[in-house]
Amino acid sequence: MSFTLHCTRCEAAATANGRSYKCARCDRRLPVSHGVVWTSEGEPPPLLGLARYASERGWLAAAEKQFESRGLDARKLMTRLNGVRTERLGDWYFLVEPEQNGSALLLGDPWGAHMTALSRVMANVVVFEQDPEVAQYLRVRAEQASLRNLPAIVSGRGVNDFPFTREQFSLVALVGPWSSRASGVGRAETFQQLIHAAFRLLRKGGSLVIGIPNRLRLPFTLRNIGRDKIASTLPAFRAGLARSGFENLQFYLPFPDFVDYNALVSLDSREALRYFHVTYTHPRARWKRVVLGAAIDSGLVPVVAPSYIATAVKP
What is the CATH number of the domain that holds 304? Predict the structure, then answer.
């Protein structure tokens, strides 16, 4: 199945032209450097440190070095690296049963585990990454993993830099942190704008997946949400997706830190409470069980849960 990039200005099809993509309508060029398509204004950066180290030592060694630099203890280092290496981080796709001949858009996949796992079950996987260094790293991992159905890794600031058009994807997945920084001229974009963009890019019957560790609360932090802090509650989050047109919203709790999805628990069932009692068995974790149990009853789970995953469908 072929895949086409589109102009970020007029949405006309862009064709590969040497080391760039060129819009057939307005002549806008999207440069390609180190295998990454750059859609923000300005020149593409040189090969940055993480990608350079991955090229020399391998993508897994580069990930390990980054984790170690964050001061993780041996257990956390092994746990997170295992999730990255075995692609178990990307095992959520069974929740939405993606179209095998379709195209997927991944947003915010910092280590490529989702990208690698999803490329084994779908015809095309396209990655959009805000961090230029991560985008370059993902291209190195894709090459070292011999992924042949990854037509583009794109780096830009936000939704205004999406080189995509309407109803182009059967799956859009936000699987990592998303920055609300300004994506062009004017104010910083909101989470609702990102959801609207995802709805526009999805085909009818397509699926939206949102899943991030809750160290960042929602995909936008409470600080970035600003005055509308109620948007961080579960009912308000459901309402926001519904306003964009999504239906059949489901929430799940995986193991903390998104390492393994073998024990997904629906937030719409009382099983979630039993999950917390099993997960937090240490005596000093009693306060977590109390807080999380109260959060389920009040609809505040996305604020305090260790991590969560949400799915929705475009009717």
Answer: 3.40.50.150
